[in-house]
Amino acid sequence: MSCSLISSEDLSLSDLIVPVCYTRLLLIYDYIINDLEKPLLKFLHRYCRSVFKRIIDNKLVDSIDRPTIFTRKSNRNISISSFNIEQNDIFPYGRIPDDHSPLFFFHQLTLKDGTLLAIGIHHRLTDGHGLINLLYRFSVWLLRVQVPFLFEHDRSLLAKHIAPTILYEHREYYIEDSSLLSRGISQSEIETDVIIKCYRKQDLFSKLHITSKHVSFNDVLVSWLTKTISRIRRVPRETLVKIGMPTNGRAVLRLDEDYFGNCVFYIYIPFIMSDLQSLSVNDLSERVHEERKRCMTRTYIESALAYIKYNMAKSNHTVCPIFNLFDEYDLAFTNWSRFPMYQIDFGRGPPRRVFLPPGKRRNGMITILPTVDGDNEIELYIRLDKKYIVELSKTLSLYEFQKKAIR
Description:
The chain is α+β, with helices and mostly antiparallel strands. It contains eleven helices and 16 strands.
Protein backbone atom coordinates (compact mmCIF):
# COMPACT_ATOMS: atom_id res chain seq x y z
CA MET A 1 0.00 0.00 0.00
CA SER A 2 1.41 3.37 -0.95
CA CYS A 3 1.09 6.03 1.75
CA SER A 4 2.44 9.48 2.27
CA LEU A 5 3.32 9.55 5.96
CA ILE A 6 2.54 12.97 7.41
CA SER A 7 2.56 12.19 11.11
CA SER A 8 2.58 9.08 13.23
CA GLU A 9 1.82 7.96 16.74
CA ASP A 10 2.90 4.73 18.43
CA LEU A 11 0.21 2.33 19.52
CA SER A 12 0.11 1.74 23.27
CA LEU A 13 1.01 -1.53 24.98
CA SER A 14 -2.70 -2.18 25.51
CA ASP A 15 -3.36 -1.60 21.80
CA LEU A 16 -0.70 -4.12 20.84
CA ILE A 17 -2.01 -7.09 22.82
CA VAL A 18 -5.57 -7.05 21.48
CA PRO A 19 -6.35 -9.13 18.38
CA VAL A 20 -6.35 -7.65 14.89
CA CYS A 21 -10.08 -7.66 14.23
CA TYR A 22 -13.12 -5.43 13.99
CA THR A 23 -15.39 -4.87 16.96
CA ARG A 24 -18.80 -4.90 15.24
CA LEU A 25 -22.39 -4.35 16.26
CA LEU A 26 -25.78 -3.74 14.68
CA LEU A 27 -28.19 -1.05 15.91
CA ILE A 28 -31.82 -1.56 14.90
CA TYR A 29 -34.25 1.40 14.87
CA ASP A 30 -37.98 1.26 14.22
CA TYR A 31 -37.94 4.63 12.45
CA ILE A 32 -36.24 6.03 9.36
CA ILE A 33 -33.10 8.01 10.15
CA ASN A 34 -32.06 10.79 7.81
CA ASP A 35 -28.88 10.15 5.85
CA LEU A 36 -26.02 10.39 8.34
CA GLU A 37 -23.00 10.72 6.05
CA LYS A 38 -22.43 14.49 6.21
CA PRO A 39 -23.00 14.94 9.97
CA LEU A 40 -20.97 11.83 10.80
CA LEU A 41 -17.95 12.92 8.77
CA LYS A 42 -18.20 16.44 10.19
CA PHE A 43 -18.28 15.07 13.74
CA LEU A 44 -15.33 12.73 13.12
CA HIS A 45 -13.20 15.47 11.51
CA ARG A 46 -13.86 17.72 14.47
CA TYR A 47 -13.55 15.30 17.37
CA CYS A 48 -12.02 11.98 16.30
CA ARG A 49 -9.67 12.35 13.34
CA SER A 50 -7.79 9.18 14.25
CA VAL A 51 -10.50 7.10 12.50
CA PHE A 52 -9.19 8.43 9.15
CA LYS A 53 -5.68 7.10 9.77
CA ARG A 54 -4.02 3.76 8.99
CA ILE A 55 -2.16 1.36 11.25
CA ILE A 56 1.28 0.60 9.82
CA ASP A 57 4.17 -1.00 11.75
CA ASN A 58 2.31 -0.54 15.05
CA LYS A 59 1.83 3.16 14.41
CA LEU A 60 -1.17 5.33 13.60
CA VAL A 61 -0.24 7.22 10.44
CA ASP A 62 -1.87 9.75 8.16
CA SER A 63 -2.24 8.79 4.53
CA ILE A 64 -3.25 10.50 1.30
CA ASP A 65 -5.79 7.86 0.30
CA ARG A 66 -8.73 8.52 2.61
CA PRO A 67 -10.58 5.34 3.59
CA THR A 68 -14.28 4.92 2.83
CA ILE A 69 -15.96 5.17 6.21
CA PHE A 70 -19.61 5.70 5.35
CA THR A 71 -21.67 3.48 3.05
CA ARG A 72 -25.42 3.21 2.50
CA LYS A 73 -28.10 1.04 0.96
CA SER A 74 -31.87 1.24 0.78
CA ASN A 75 -34.63 -1.34 0.40
CA ARG A 76 -38.05 0.28 0.85
CA ASN A 77 -39.85 -2.95 -0.11
CA ILE A 78 -39.02 -4.78 3.13
CA SER A 79 -40.03 -3.96 6.69
CA ILE A 80 -38.05 -4.28 9.91
CA SER A 81 -40.32 -7.10 11.12
CA SER A 82 -39.69 -9.23 8.04
CA PHE A 83 -35.94 -8.59 7.78
CA ASN A 84 -34.00 -11.56 9.18
CA ILE A 85 -30.98 -10.02 10.87
CA GLU A 86 -29.52 -13.41 11.77
CA GLN A 87 -29.42 -14.65 8.18
CA ASN A 88 -28.65 -11.38 6.38
CA ASP A 89 -25.12 -10.13 6.98
CA ILE A 90 -25.26 -6.46 5.94
CA PHE A 91 -21.79 -5.56 7.17
CA PRO A 92 -19.57 -4.09 4.43
CA TYR A 93 -16.48 -5.67 6.03
CA GLY A 94 -15.81 -9.02 7.68
CA ARG A 95 -14.34 -9.54 11.14
CA ILE A 96 -10.70 -9.23 10.04
CA PRO A 97 -9.47 -5.93 8.51
CA ASP A 98 -6.78 -5.81 5.85
CA ASP A 99 -4.32 -3.09 4.79
CA HIS A 100 -7.00 -1.31 2.75
CA SER A 101 -9.86 -1.52 5.26
CA PRO A 102 -10.87 1.61 7.18
CA LEU A 103 -10.22 1.77 10.91
CA PHE A 104 -13.88 2.68 11.39
CA PHE A 105 -16.92 2.00 9.22
CA PHE A 106 -20.57 3.03 9.41
CA HIS A 107 -23.14 1.41 7.10
CA GLN A 108 -26.71 2.76 6.98
CA LEU A 109 -29.44 0.47 5.62
CA THR A 110 -32.85 2.11 5.21
CA LEU A 111 -35.89 -0.17 5.09
CA LYS A 112 -39.59 0.49 4.63
CA ASP A 113 -40.23 1.42 8.25
CA GLY A 114 -36.86 1.52 9.96
CA THR A 115 -33.09 1.77 9.86
CA LEU A 116 -30.24 -0.62 10.53
CA LEU A 117 -26.78 0.72 11.38
CA ALA A 118 -23.94 -1.77 10.89
CA ILE A 119 -20.85 -0.36 12.62
CA GLY A 120 -17.34 -1.56 13.25
CA ILE A 121 -14.02 -0.29 14.58
CA HIS A 122 -10.51 -1.73 14.38
CA HIS A 123 -9.81 -3.20 17.80
CA ARG A 124 -6.29 -1.77 17.86
CA LEU A 125 -7.71 1.75 17.48
CA THR A 126 -9.94 1.51 20.54
CA ASP A 127 -11.87 -0.92 22.72
CA GLY A 128 -15.62 -1.46 23.16
CA HIS A 129 -15.83 1.43 25.60
CA GLY A 130 -14.29 3.76 23.02
CA LEU A 131 -16.61 2.58 20.24
CA ILE A 132 -19.85 2.99 22.23
CA ASN A 133 -18.69 6.32 23.65
CA LEU A 134 -18.00 7.54 20.09
CA LEU A 135 -21.46 6.53 18.84
CA TYR A 136 -23.25 7.93 21.89
CA ARG A 137 -21.49 11.29 21.61
CA PHE A 138 -22.21 11.49 17.91
CA SER A 139 -25.92 10.97 18.59
CA VAL A 140 -26.12 13.67 21.27
CA TRP A 141 -24.06 16.07 19.16
CA LEU A 142 -26.48 15.48 16.30
CA LEU A 143 -29.39 16.42 18.60
CA ARG A 144 -27.45 19.54 19.73
CA VAL A 145 -27.24 18.43 23.33
CA GLN A 146 -24.59 20.45 25.16
CA VAL A 147 -22.01 17.98 26.47
CA PRO A 148 -18.20 17.96 26.24
CA PHE A 149 -17.19 16.11 23.08
CA LEU A 150 -13.42 16.13 23.21
CA PHE A 151 -11.74 12.73 23.33
CA GLU A 152 -8.34 12.13 24.88
CA HIS A 153 -6.16 10.82 22.03
CA ASP A 154 -2.77 10.88 23.79
CA ARG A 155 -1.75 7.20 23.88
CA SER A 156 1.44 8.01 25.78
CA LEU A 157 -0.72 8.48 28.91
CA LEU A 158 -0.79 4.71 29.35
CA ALA A 159 3.03 4.52 29.34
CA LYS A 160 3.13 6.74 32.43
CA HIS A 161 1.54 3.89 34.40
CA ILE A 162 4.20 1.26 33.68
CA ALA A 163 5.57 -0.05 36.98
CA PRO A 164 9.39 -0.07 37.41
CA THR A 165 9.32 -3.82 38.12
CA ILE A 166 7.01 -6.79 37.52
CA LEU A 167 5.33 -7.65 40.81
CA TYR A 168 3.02 -10.51 39.84
CA GLU A 169 3.06 -13.71 37.80
CA HIS A 170 0.39 -12.47 35.33
CA ARG A 171 -1.06 -15.80 34.29
CA GLU A 172 -3.62 -13.88 32.21
CA TYR A 173 -1.00 -13.56 29.46
CA TYR A 174 1.30 -15.89 27.56
CA ILE A 175 4.33 -15.30 25.34
CA GLU A 176 4.23 -16.28 21.68
CA ASP A 177 7.09 -16.43 19.19
CA SER A 178 5.96 -13.92 16.56
CA SER A 179 8.32 -15.45 13.98
CA LEU A 180 6.12 -18.56 13.98
CA LEU A 181 2.55 -18.95 12.85
CA SER A 182 0.15 -17.93 15.60
CA ARG A 183 -1.76 -20.68 17.31
CA GLY A 184 -4.65 -18.24 17.52
CA ILE A 185 -7.89 -19.86 18.55
CA SER A 186 -7.60 -23.61 18.65
CA GLN A 187 -11.29 -24.44 18.36
CA SER A 188 -12.16 -23.26 14.85
CA GLU A 189 -13.00 -26.78 13.73
CA ILE A 190 -15.85 -27.06 16.28
CA GLU A 191 -19.27 -26.32 14.83
CA THR A 192 -21.02 -23.84 17.10
CA ASP A 193 -24.37 -22.13 17.52
CA VAL A 194 -25.67 -19.22 19.59
CA ILE A 195 -28.19 -19.02 22.42
CA ILE A 196 -29.68 -15.62 23.29
CA LYS A 197 -31.31 -15.28 26.73
CA CYS A 198 -32.51 -12.40 28.92
CA TYR A 199 -32.29 -12.18 32.72
CA ARG A 200 -33.23 -9.76 35.48
CA LYS A 201 -30.86 -9.40 38.42
CA GLN A 202 -33.47 -9.69 41.16
CA ASP A 203 -35.15 -12.74 39.61
CA LEU A 204 -31.89 -14.58 38.98
CA PHE A 205 -30.45 -13.85 42.42
CA SER A 206 -33.64 -15.17 44.01
CA LYS A 207 -33.74 -18.38 41.96
CA LEU A 208 -30.04 -19.07 42.56
CA HIS A 209 -30.26 -18.28 46.30
CA ILE A 210 -27.60 -15.58 46.22
CA THR A 211 -27.08 -14.28 49.77
CA SER A 212 -23.73 -12.46 49.45
CA LYS A 213 -24.27 -8.72 49.59
CA HIS A 214 -21.17 -7.59 47.73
CA VAL A 215 -21.12 -9.85 44.64
CA SER A 216 -22.11 -8.22 41.36
CA PHE A 217 -24.50 -9.35 38.65
CA ASN A 218 -21.40 -10.13 36.56
CA ASP A 219 -19.89 -12.30 39.34
CA VAL A 220 -23.08 -14.35 39.56
CA LEU A 221 -23.47 -14.73 35.79
CA VAL A 222 -19.86 -15.90 35.37
CA SER A 223 -20.17 -18.41 38.23
CA TRP A 224 -23.61 -19.75 37.29
CA LEU A 225 -22.85 -20.13 33.58
CA THR A 226 -19.45 -21.75 34.23
CA LYS A 227 -21.00 -24.25 36.62
CA THR A 228 -23.97 -24.98 34.30
CA ILE A 229 -22.05 -25.22 31.03
CA SER A 230 -19.30 -27.36 32.59
CA ARG A 231 -21.92 -29.81 33.88
CA ILE A 232 -23.59 -30.02 30.46
CA ARG A 233 -20.19 -30.50 28.81
CA ARG A 234 -19.55 -33.35 31.28
CA VAL A 235 -16.11 -32.07 32.18
CA PRO A 236 -14.04 -34.69 34.05
CA ARG A 237 -13.88 -34.08 37.79
CA GLU A 238 -10.15 -33.23 38.04
CA THR A 239 -10.04 -31.06 34.91
CA LEU A 240 -9.14 -27.37 35.15
CA VAL A 241 -11.83 -25.11 33.66
CA LYS A 242 -10.27 -21.76 32.74
CA ILE A 243 -12.20 -18.48 32.67
CA GLY A 244 -11.02 -15.29 30.96
CA MET A 245 -12.50 -11.78 31.10
CA PRO A 246 -11.31 -8.54 29.49
CA THR A 247 -11.95 -5.50 31.65
CA ASN A 248 -11.75 -1.71 31.34
CA GLY A 249 -8.80 -0.25 33.26
CA ARG A 250 -9.58 3.47 32.87
CA ALA A 251 -11.06 4.05 36.32
CA VAL A 252 -8.36 2.01 38.09
CA LEU A 253 -5.55 3.93 36.36
CA ARG A 254 -7.43 7.20 36.85
CA LEU A 255 -7.50 7.82 33.13
CA ASP A 256 -10.35 9.96 31.90
CA GLU A 257 -13.37 8.09 30.53
CA ASP A 258 -12.71 10.10 27.33
CA TYR A 259 -9.45 8.22 26.67
CA PHE A 260 -9.80 6.97 23.08
CA GLY A 261 -7.61 3.93 22.76
CA ASN A 262 -7.43 0.50 24.30
CA CYS A 263 -7.33 0.30 28.06
CA VAL A 264 -8.11 -3.42 28.19
CA PHE A 265 -6.67 -5.73 30.81
CA TYR A 266 -7.53 -9.32 31.57
CA ILE A 267 -8.72 -11.46 34.46
CA TYR A 268 -7.91 -15.17 34.54
CA ILE A 269 -9.75 -17.51 36.93
CA PRO A 270 -9.13 -21.29 36.97
CA PHE A 271 -11.66 -23.66 38.54
CA ILE A 272 -11.23 -27.35 39.31
CA MET A 273 -14.33 -29.15 38.04
CA SER A 274 -14.82 -30.84 41.41
CA ASP A 275 -15.29 -27.36 42.96
CA LEU A 276 -17.76 -26.40 40.24
CA GLN A 277 -19.72 -29.54 41.11
CA SER A 278 -19.68 -29.17 44.88
CA LEU A 279 -19.82 -25.43 45.54
CA SER A 280 -22.97 -23.34 45.30
CA VAL A 281 -23.29 -20.49 42.81
CA ASN A 282 -23.18 -18.13 45.79
CA ASP A 283 -19.80 -19.53 46.92
CA LEU A 284 -18.40 -19.53 43.40
CA SER A 285 -19.52 -15.92 42.97
CA GLU A 286 -17.55 -14.99 46.07
CA ARG A 287 -14.46 -16.53 44.49
CA VAL A 288 -14.98 -14.65 41.22
CA HIS A 289 -15.50 -11.42 43.15
CA GLU A 290 -12.30 -11.82 45.14
CA GLU A 291 -10.20 -12.69 42.08
CA ARG A 292 -11.63 -9.78 40.12
CA LYS A 293 -10.93 -7.43 43.04
CA ARG A 294 -7.35 -8.72 43.28
CA CYS A 295 -6.63 -8.09 39.59
CA MET A 296 -8.38 -4.73 39.31
CA THR A 297 -5.98 -2.67 41.41
CA ARG A 298 -3.66 0.05 40.21
CA THR A 299 -0.60 -1.87 41.42
CA TYR A 300 -1.62 -5.02 39.58
CA ILE A 301 -2.42 -3.27 36.28
CA GLU A 302 0.79 -1.21 36.37
CA SER A 303 2.69 -4.45 36.93
CA ALA A 304 0.85 -5.96 33.95
CA LEU A 305 2.05 -3.08 31.77
CA ALA A 306 5.62 -3.71 32.97
CA TYR A 307 5.22 -7.41 32.11
CA ILE A 308 3.95 -6.57 28.61
CA LYS A 309 6.73 -4.01 28.00
CA TYR A 310 9.50 -6.35 29.20
CA ASN A 311 8.40 -9.27 27.05
CA MET A 312 7.51 -7.25 23.95
CA ALA A 313 11.02 -5.79 23.98
CA LYS A 314 12.48 -9.24 23.35
CA SER A 315 13.13 -10.29 19.77
CA ASN A 316 10.21 -12.16 18.17
CA HIS A 317 8.16 -12.02 21.38
CA THR A 318 4.47 -11.18 21.39
CA VAL A 319 2.27 -10.98 24.50
CA CYS A 320 -1.23 -12.42 24.10
CA PRO A 321 -4.27 -12.88 26.36
CA ILE A 322 -4.26 -16.41 27.75
CA PHE A 323 -7.74 -17.21 26.48
CA ASN A 324 -6.33 -17.35 22.95
CA LEU A 325 -5.11 -20.78 24.08
CA PHE A 326 -8.31 -21.91 25.73
CA ASP A 327 -9.47 -25.45 25.04
CA GLU A 328 -12.87 -27.09 24.63
CA TYR A 329 -13.85 -26.80 28.32
CA ASP A 330 -12.88 -23.14 28.84
CA LEU A 331 -14.99 -19.96 28.67
CA ALA A 332 -14.36 -16.30 27.77
CA PHE A 333 -16.72 -13.60 29.06
CA THR A 334 -17.11 -10.05 27.73
CA ASN A 335 -19.39 -7.67 29.63
CA TRP A 336 -20.80 -4.65 27.79
CA SER A 337 -23.85 -4.31 29.99
CA ARG A 338 -22.87 -0.88 31.35
CA PHE A 339 -22.29 0.71 27.96
CA PRO A 340 -24.93 3.31 26.91
CA MET A 341 -26.00 1.45 23.76
CA TYR A 342 -29.67 2.13 24.37
CA GLN A 343 -29.02 5.85 24.75
CA ILE A 344 -27.85 6.19 21.13
CA ASP A 345 -30.84 8.20 19.92
CA PHE A 346 -31.02 9.67 16.41
CA GLY A 347 -34.13 11.77 16.97
CA ARG A 348 -37.07 9.48 17.68
CA GLY A 349 -35.82 7.19 20.39
CA PRO A 350 -33.15 4.60 21.18
CA PRO A 351 -32.57 1.43 19.16
CA ARG A 352 -35.23 -1.21 19.60
CA ARG A 353 -32.42 -3.73 19.77
CA VAL A 354 -28.64 -4.02 19.72
CA PHE A 355 -27.48 -7.14 17.92
CA LEU A 356 -24.13 -8.88 17.57
CA PRO A 357 -23.50 -9.79 13.94
CA PRO A 358 -23.34 -13.37 12.76
CA GLY A 359 -19.88 -14.68 12.16
CA LYS A 360 -17.35 -17.33 13.05
CA ARG A 361 -16.69 -17.01 16.76
CA ARG A 362 -15.03 -19.18 19.32
CA ASN A 363 -16.72 -22.03 21.14
CA GLY A 364 -17.26 -20.90 24.73
CA MET A 365 -17.51 -17.16 24.05
CA ILE A 366 -20.15 -15.39 26.17
CA THR A 367 -21.11 -11.73 25.74
CA ILE A 368 -23.24 -9.81 28.23
CA LEU A 369 -25.20 -6.90 26.73
CA PRO A 370 -27.62 -4.37 28.21
CA THR A 371 -31.29 -4.24 27.25
CA VAL A 372 -33.56 -1.29 26.62
CA ASP A 373 -35.08 -1.77 30.10
CA GLY A 374 -32.11 -0.71 32.20
CA ASP A 375 -29.19 -1.68 34.43
CA ASN A 376 -30.74 -4.66 36.20
CA GLU A 377 -31.58 -6.57 33.03
CA ILE A 378 -29.13 -8.14 30.59
CA GLU A 379 -29.09 -10.12 27.35
CA LEU A 380 -26.69 -13.05 27.00
CA TYR A 381 -25.09 -14.27 23.78
CA ILE A 382 -23.65 -17.73 24.40
CA ARG A 383 -21.72 -19.46 21.61
CA LEU A 384 -21.23 -23.15 22.24
CA ASP A 385 -20.58 -26.46 20.55
CA LYS A 386 -23.79 -27.36 18.70
CA LYS A 387 -24.17 -30.71 20.44
CA TYR A 388 -24.78 -28.94 23.78
CA ILE A 389 -27.12 -26.19 22.55
CA VAL A 390 -30.49 -27.90 23.09
CA GLU A 391 -29.73 -29.09 26.63
CA LEU A 392 -28.21 -25.75 27.66
CA SER A 393 -31.13 -23.76 26.22
CA LYS A 394 -33.65 -25.85 28.17
CA THR A 395 -31.68 -25.44 31.39
CA LEU A 396 -31.23 -21.69 31.04
CA SER A 397 -34.91 -21.18 30.15
CA LEU A 398 -35.86 -22.26 33.68
CA TYR A 399 -34.27 -19.07 35.01
CA GLU A 400 -35.29 -16.68 32.24
CA PHE A 401 -38.03 -14.13 32.81
CA GLN A 402 -40.82 -13.70 30.30
CA LYS A 403 -40.00 -10.80 28.02
CA LYS A 404 -42.23 -9.34 25.36
CA ALA A 405 -41.12 -10.56 21.96
CA ILE A 406 -39.29 -8.15 19.67
CA ARG A 407 -40.82 -8.24 16.24
